[in-house]
Specification:
2 copies of one chain form a homodimer.
Chain A lengths: L2 E4 L2 E4 L7 E9 L3 E8 L33 E8 L3 H10 L1 E2 L16 E5 L2 H4 L1 H8 L2 E4 L2 H15 L4 E5 L2 E4 L10 E6 L3 E8 L2 E8 L3 H12 L4 H9 L8 E2 H4 L15 E3 L3 H4 L9 H26 L4 E5 L7 H15 L4 E5 L5 H8 L21 H4 L12 E2 L5 E5 L15
Parallel strand pairs in A: 3-6, 3-7, 7-8, 11-16, 16-17
Antiparallel strand pairs in A: 1-2, 3-4, 4-5, 5-19, 9-10, 9-17, 11-12, 12-13, 14-15, 18-19
Helix pairs in contact in A: 4-11, 5-9, 6-9, 9-10
Organism (chains A, B): Solanum pennellii
Keywords (chains A, B): Kinase, Transferase
Protein name (chains A, B): Pantothenate kinase 1
Chain lengths: ~425, ~425
């Protein structure tokens, strides 16, 4: 099997085999490694869950004859950065396209470049070279986040939602009224980026109090071992046991003069001051809840202040801190609503943790003078079951845990660019 | 001995005795009780440390014959709110003026009102009534903070300083160019107030991540028993052991594209994620340091964002979180400088923790049509040693721990108002 770029279009041989990866990008953060890869091994079916693999050039739905469609699946996988060996093992088990089946052996792929972003693209470059023979072709971290977010905001339906009063409500994005917006990516730390268009952005703020703080402090305080375990704990907890509320100070009263209800948190973890208790006397559930609320609220507040600073009404949130977790989203939403007096809205991206990896993925350029990054092709209902040129993100394809503890997601893209640019045949 | 208001001026009898308190105000916060009281028991000397007690009307230095000077000392004492019984004991041991010596017995002072602020003025009103017979005359919390801050900013020399590169530098405040400014009061929680003039202000923001969070989380994580112990621990610690730095993610490199040095904190407590360590494996010193830096930096950032929002160049910081602690001030200063790109300055108030209590103290009004709150009288160098009509806050008078663990400070005021308004003779 081989893949080569011809006039900036993708040409794919007929010989495909299981688990072949045609495009792969990686985002190596402080805590998590996120991988996005496009695989053409899927068998066609007439439903969205198992789309037909297009093995030949297809006309794109809008009639643009210059571009062709490669259907398949885009997978989303993550690993803990501290367990990078698992990631290496995973990649070495995959057959990296262009080289054929034998190329999943490390000695055979040493000419392959893959798009990589995040600080770990620098830190682990030698490791990937040594273990997999892969060269990490670095894409700037903020640029990747923005490209990934724009990609999702423009191309995917049911990608964006608000979370208010315990209810998710999907938001239809008007592409003509998308910019400017504030992108808040909550990884180990938090980046806040003002986005004005494709490739037009500025990192305007951030905070070190992010997902790494939640898990770091959470592990120290509760002895839990994973982020999801800590979230589960928080779900069962009551933050009022440890947080000092306005009512605790005001004798049960509101501080109505400044609009603070008696139940508002005056001081996170403030009750742990005056009581004669030690760590062991508190329930891990309550600690996890206070911690989650402290961090979520803080992020919501700083995000709002930055949105206000630039007059941005839309705040899109990504990053693996959120994890579709009700209380996290609720706290961030309430914080933004409270501080903005209802003027600004927190909106969540379903593919929250993969913005950077997706953005790096989009960075594959074809060789033509008119670079054409991967594009989602809008779903054409009439053709849906026959052509498999579908493309929207399916509700049902998200959050599937595989044996690596990875979240496995998928979508389909049209492709019209060279894969592994500058690679040579092996 | 008696005190009465005559035409809005203070008339004081000749009979004074030790430990008599002529004015007292109290600020009862979530963690700390702060008391400011004016005592006329001091003996005169020719140096600033032990000023002459003026026992008769004196002409104020500016020649305003309508006002008179009562010299004495203004004391600043604090207690932990959880040990309010110590505070009650302290107050019951004092002789509350107007009633004479016998009035320090609780049964004799039940007609006395004292100015009180903070949420505890509501919560503990009944306790003060029951135990001391004192009625707490409530002054709104934000109003008290602003009045206290304005009082210090206008009247006191050597009150305000910056902390840059390990150096304190006192700032001379131009009273004609004081407003607007941002007041950041860091108690258990944090209030941020835009101040536009005397009595003209708006609480524009705040955060629940404050001094209560530092001590609360600090106690849980290090088992230390007091705020000062935790600060002392932090002084010896190294936050890089637990915080995830930019260099930890980027393989030792800076993330120069967005101006983050390799030593910048990417994720507070982020290293505690990936390492196979438990709480016991970390030094309490390092934990305390990370915690202090996380909270100080966060406050500095939110303060800056609010200053920016309203175009405020001056940020004054008060509250008992600071405690003249080098690393705290350094972190806040660096945060404000970093985020504002040098445009805004963090300035610290030496009487940091007593803004609210001082403001409540200023709330004593005389009965005239032209209310005259207590005023500091500017120091007159020529008269300094002879008249004792001095007034500035002395460097040497701060941070004297008494047996209650209280910070004991003093300054002298001119007084021209009724004390304990609406009190009756006993």
């Amino acid at each position: 099997m081989e893949v080569k770029g011809i006039d900036g279009k993708l040409e794919k041989s007929d010989s495909t085999s299981a688990d072949e990866i045609s495009h792969l990008s990686i985002d190596i953060g402080g805590s998590l490694i996120k991988i996005v890869y496009f695989s053409t091994n899927s068998k066609c079916s007439t439903n969205d869950e198992a789309p037909t693999l297009s093995k030949e050039r297809q006309e794109v739905p809008n009639g643009d004859l210059n571009h062709h469609i490669l259907s398949g699946r885009l997978y989303f996988v993550k690993f803990e950065t501290s367990k990078i060996e698992d990631c290496i093992k995973f990649l070495s088990s995959k057959k990296l396209q262009k080289c054929g089946a034998q190329c999943h052996h490390s000695h055979a792929v040493d000419k392959i470049k893959i798009k990589a972003t995040g600080g770990g693209a620098f830190k682990f470059a030698d490791l990937f070279k040594e273990k997999l023979g892969l060269t990490l072709d670095k894409v700037e971290e903020m640029e990747s986040l923005v490209t990934g977010a724009n990609f999702l905001l423009k191309a995917a339906n049911h990608e964006v939602y608000t979370y208010i009063g315990g209810q998710k409500e999907y938001v239809q994005i008007d592409q003509n009224d998308l910019y400017p917006y504030l992108l808040v990516n909550i990884g180990s730390g938090v980046s806040m980026i003002k986005v004005d268009g494709d490739g037009k952005f500025q990192r305007v703020s951030g905070t070190s109090v992010g997902g790494g703080t939640f898990l770091g402090l959470g592990k120290l305080l509760t002895k839990c071992q994973s982020f999801d375990e800590l979230l589960e704990l928080s779900h069962q907890g009551n933050n009022r046991v440890i947080d000092m509320l306005v009512g605790d100070i005001y004798g049960g009263l509101d501080y109505s003069k400044i609009g603070l209800a008696s139940t508002a948190i005056a001081s996170s973890f403030g009750k742990a001051i005056s009581e004669n208790k030690e760590l062991e006397d508190y329930k891990p559930e309550d600690i996890a809840r206070s911690l989650l609320r402290m961090i979520s609220n803080n992020i919501g507040q700083i995000a709002y202040l930055n949105a206000l600073r630039f007059g941005l009404k839309r705040i899109f949130l990504g990053g693996f801190f959120i994890r579709d977790h009700a209380y996290t989203m609720d706290t961030i939403s309430v914080a933004v609503d409270f501080w903005s007096k209802g003027e600004a809205k927190a909106m969540f991206l379903r593919h929250e943790g993969f913005l950077g990896a997706l953005g790096a993925f989009m960075n594959y350029k074809d060789g033509s003078t008119d670079p054409m990054p991967p594009q989602l092709v809008e779903q054409q209902p009439a053709k849906r079951s026959s052509s498999c040129i579908v493309d929207r993100i399916h509700n049902s394809t998200r959050v599937q845990e595989n044996e690596n503890g990875a979240t496995d997601c998928r979508l389909r893209v049209s492709s019209s660019f060279k894969i592994y640019d500058e690679v040579k045949r092996c």
